[in-house]
Amino acid sequence: MKHLLKSIPVPSIEPFKQWLPFSCLSMATIAVLLMLGSSCTTVPDAVVVPPQVEGAHFVGNQKCADCHGEHTRHFAGSVHSRFFKETSQFHEVSGCESCHGPGSKHIVAGGGKGVFIHNPGRDPQPCLNCHQEKHAEFRLPQHHPVLEGQMNCVDCHDPHGREIFKQSGGLGLARQDQQCAQCHREQTRPFVFVHEGMQDGCTTCHQPHGSIHEKMLTQRDAHLCLRCHSQMQFDPNQVLVGKVDHSTFLAMGTCWTAGCHTAVHGSMVNPRLLY
Ligand code: HEC
Ligand code: HEC
Ligand code: HEC
Ligand code: HEC
Ligand code: HEC
Ligand code: HEC
Ligand code: HEC
């Protein structure tokens, strides 16, 4: 997103003006520093082309507010609204139209579903244009089938409102698990023997977009579990995990594939998370 910040230097520098009683030189220095600093944001440096609608031009958020007041009101709280001010010289990729495409023909036609307007709820390409690193995540061997069209970013993210503003990528932790629960009932139902490792949420163990590990796990094999459960080895033949001698078990596979803690999300029958 470096180029976007570069293109809208004025709004980004505005708050710093009070510290800059001197020359344009110091302004320029700060601008350069800001750009250098911004080069480590998550959206990579590439040319972003907003979605196109043949023959239409960009009109700005105010025009959309006439008919979509609800969306426009929520939008003020979104990260996306902070980046793309209508006043910026980069207005082509600003606000509503950065995701929905230029709206003039949609408006002249009086609006309507599928009438000269994009809906990334059906095709997430506009999101992927900017979030190219997410595009890459969805191409990893294990991934949620978003690019396949079986699900969409909006199954987990709220594109307009306050939600996108919250921690962890627009999803508070509690709500995040609820989001997963909509589709994954088995892992999120109440258990008799709860695994306390679930308390910090699904993303402790799973990558939400995609991963190189099976079941989209954050780490491979026993590494995943040993982050929280310490392993102690007193002599080469005895490996203790959770005070139980695991030396023969670990030779059979990893914590769950060995046929042991297969109920890793929680168990109805066994406190050791066995089925
Ligand atoms: C003259 C009123 C009007 C204006 C102005 C207007 N729209 Fe719409 N828009 C509509 C109507 C009516 C619908 C259909 C609503 C429905 O079916 O729920 C619609 C639907 C949409 C949809 C859903 C399309 C789909 O295929 O699902 C999007 C996205 C949208 N508008 C975006 C915008 C954007 C962005 C702007 C500003 C550039 C804008 N609209 C301006 C009236 C308007
Ligand atoms: C970050 C990208 C993004 C931006 C910016 C954005 N939208 Fe949307 N919009 C979406 C997505 C994604 C959907 C599909 C939502 C769904 O299916 O639940 C959508 C759906 C809509 C719809 C169809 C009705 C609905 O809620 O499904 C309207 C109308 C709309 N947007 C208007 C706007 C307006 C007005 C703005 C600016 C104030 C705006 N959008 C800014 C991504 C965006
Ligand atoms: C025009 C470029 C652009 C488009 C289009 C776009 N985004 Fe973003 N998005 C950004 C920028 C810039 C940020 C803030 C910088 C960052 O954290 O990467 C951001 C941040 C986010 C965040 C993190 C919010 C947070 O709290 O940190 C999420 C989630 C997100 N976008 C999802 C989406 C989704 C879903 C879509 C499509 C419906 C979309 N974006 C479309 C540029 C874009
Ligand atoms: C299965 C649910 C799910 C889907 C589908 C999904 N996301 Fe996410 N996304 C998440 C979760 C959960 C997080 C928070 C990750 C964390 O906290 O480690 C997140 C974080 C993000 C972030 C900010 C995190 C960061 O790395 O800075 C962006 C941007 C984002 N998602 C974009 C997208 C886009 C674009 C799409 C669609 C192409 C999408 N997501 C689809 C669940 C999802
Ligand atoms: C809209 C429905 C939906 C939501 C919401 C959702 N998922 Fe999924 N999930 C799927 C689908 C569809 C698959 C692919 C299943 C398949 O390929 O058999 C999947 C696959 C998975 C897998 C891999 C399963 C396997 O067999 O490889 C894991 C792990 C997973 N999701 C975790 C999560 C987490 C964590 C969240 C919340 C951040 C989440 N899901 C949100 C629909 C969803
Ligand atoms: C985020 C931290 C965390 C992760 C990761 C984690 N656990 Fe746990 N687990 C806990 C906590 C906390 C407890 C409850 C305290 C205890 O018994 O050590 C627990 C308890 C257990 C128990 C019950 C122990 C007993 O004697 O009652 C088993 C079995 C277990 N975990 C297996 C696993 C397996 C297998 C994995 C890897 C797939 C794993 N855990 C990953 C935190 C975690
Ligand atoms: C302590 C780590 C841990 C946490 C937390 C965790 N999972 Fe898992 N999950 C695993 C492991 C390990 C597997 C692989 C189990 C297997 O293959 O039998 C798995 C597998 C899955 C699968 C695939 C099941 C299948 O039969 O293919 C889904 C879906 C899933 N988890 C969803 C979730 C959801 C939703 C959450 C949050 C409510 C969550 N997980 C939290 C460790 C975890």
Describe the structure.
The protein contains 15 helices and seven strands. It has 275 residues and is mainly alpha-helical. It has three domains: 1-41, no CATH class; 46-165, no CATH class; 193-267, no CATH class. One heme C binds at residues 42, 124, 127-128, 131, 134, 144, 146, 151, 153, 155-157, 168-169, 171, 176, 203, 208-209. One heme C binds next to α6, α7, α9 and α11.
Any chance you could write out the topology, listing elements then pairs?
Blueprint: H1 2-7, H2 9-13, H3 24-38, H4 61-65, H5 69-75, H6 79-83, H7 96-100, H8 104-108, H9 125-130, H10 132-137, E1 142-143, H11 167-170, H12 173-181, H13 185-188, E2 193-194, E3 210-211, H14 223-226, E4 231-235, E5 238-241, E6 244-245, H15 247-250, E7 266-267
Antiparallel strand pairs: 1-3, 2-7, 4-5, 5-6
One heme C is lined by residues 59, 63-64, 66-68, 96-97, 100, 103, 106-107, 110-114, 117, 119.
